[in-house]
Amino acid sequence: MRTLRKAGQWVVGTDIQPSPFTDMVGSIADREHVRQCMVGVDAVLHTATLHKPHVATHSRQDFVDTNITGTLNLLEEATLAGVNAFIFTSTTSTFGDALTPAAGEPAAWITEEVAPVPKNIYGVTKVAAETLCELFHRNQGLPCLILRTARFFPEPDDSKATRDTYSDANIKANEYLYRRVDIADVVSAHLCALERAAAIGFGRYVISATTPFMQADLANLHRDARSVVQRLLPDFAAIYAQQGWQMFPQIDRVYVNAKARTELGWQPRYDFATVLATVATGQTDLRSPLAQAVGIKGYHGTAFADGIYPVQEAARGR
After folding, report:
1. Which pTM was predicted?
2. Which CATH class is domain 2-299?
3. Closest of 175, 158, 157, 168 to residue 243, by C-alpha
4. CA angle 51-288-296, nearest 5°?
């Protein structure tokens, strides 16, 4: 919304909460609301979702209502409105258990060819929504591109053990090697997808920072990640030592963005080399200016005993 408005584009923003970037307040699970939002629209950027942190606070039906029914409503109304591009923001969480190799196995090389193995209702409903997009392309001719985005949230890590072991900036710096992407690069990927949707028709794309790793590194990454990073980026150790940071002992997966760069013409700007260059100047805010402007939104309207994340066990049986 910020980027499109700044570029002078006419755009309609909808959300369940009012904000300076929300033109119409309502839920995508409400088809009449979706119909009203679609008036005059020629492209849809569908980012609305219940997310992983909501698994503990929302029922499985809530996930179905927003992530599946909401997507269906958008697809139906987009088709009726004759839009020429439908961009669905999905997630690398769809890969689920495919992201975690067994002990002694190499790290996972995650491309669009990896079959999803969802491990919670979030992953299941995002995969289902992707399949709906594919169905509408095949049967209604709607140009649909799916962007499976890596982590771009600025909130603290959702693992308490990780938060207790590493500083927040250290965690995010490490993740740029294999599973993080800056908001500015996510936005540019969506804009590229808008431009290419009609020509491509349908496609799925991993949207993550460009990794320095190759497939030959996977076995060593899962055993001793630091040694691999040191070999590829010799300046890393001194820059990290200056901050008192540590590399993760193991890296279990590597997201590969080659298809998005090739087919969408996407040129991500932020990666681990950018991180090192930033930190070498004494800065530890690794975010792009856009990411800084967006800031932290959170996932819930309340705090929990463990900070911003609820305990997931509370959702069992819901």
Report:
1. 0.95
2. alpha beta
3. 168
4. 40
